[in-house]
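Section 4.2 – Deliverable D4.2 (structural model, holo form)

The reporting period included a commitment to supply a predicted holo structure for the target in complex with 3,4-dihydroxybenzoic acid. Inputs used:
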Amino acid sequence: MNQEQWTAVDRYIGDTVVPSDSALVAALEASAKAELPAIAVTANQGKLLHILARLIAARRVLEIGTLGGYSTIWLARALPKGGRVITLEVNPKHAEVARANVARAGLAKTVEIRLGAALETLPKLAAEKASAFDLIFIDADKANIPEYFAWSLKLSHPGSLIIVDNVVRKGAVIEADSDDPDVQGVRRLNEMLAKEKRVTATTIQTVGSKGYDGFTIALVN
Ligand code: SAH
Ligand code: DHB
Ligand code: MG
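Output (C-alpha cells):
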C-alpha cells in the first residue's frame, strides 16, 4: 500500500462515484492558478460533507478555513433555498479566490466569507446572537483546533454536527511528546473529547490522494 495506489484509487472513485462538474473543476483550477496550496478536501471527502449536511437537513453551516472555497461549494450545494454558509478565512488572497469560485458556482447569495483570524471573527459571530449552526467544519490552522471546537460548541445546538479535518496527521497524533503545534492541537482536542459530555464523537482514519490523515465527527447531544 502506498501513496501512488491511494491516489489512483481516489482518481478511480472520482471517475465513477464522485464525478466533478465544471464549477468544482474551475474552483480547483483557479486556486492552482492563484498559487493557493493544494490542500482542499478531495472530491470524495467534499461529497461526504455534502451528504452529512443533507442528512441532517442543514440550513446554516459554519466553516473555519475557506481556502479557495472548494469545500464551501460542496457544503453550500447541500442547503435548501434560503440556507447559508458562513466561512472564515484569514488570508485576503484566499478569500478573493474563494469569492470568485463561489460566484462561478452560482452560490454568491448562499455563501458569506468573513475575513480575519477566526479567533477574532468567532467571538463577533457569537455576539450577533444569530441562530445556531447545524453543521460546523473546522479546517483552518490546526494548533487552534481546541479553541475552534470550544467556539463550535457555543455556536451549535443539540443535533448539530462538528467535523474536524486533518486529525490523524500521518499517524503523528499518537506522539505525545511531539513538538509540532499542529499535532498538539489535535491531541488537546482529543483530551477535550475524552471528557466532553455534550458530544458523541468518533475519529476515522483515511488514506487518499492527500495521504494518510483522518477526520473527527462530533454530534452535539
Ligand atoms: N476548507 C478548505 C481548505 C482550508 S485550508 C477546503 O477543503 O477546500 C486552511 C485555510 O485556513 C487556509 O486558507 C488558511 O489561510 C486558513 N487559515 C489559517 N489560519 C487561519 C485563522 N487563524 N483564521 C482563519 N483562517 C485561517
Ligand atoms: C494540509 C491539509 C489540509 O487538509 C489542511 O486543512 C491544511 C493543511 C496539509 O496537507 O498541509
Ligand atoms: Mg483540511
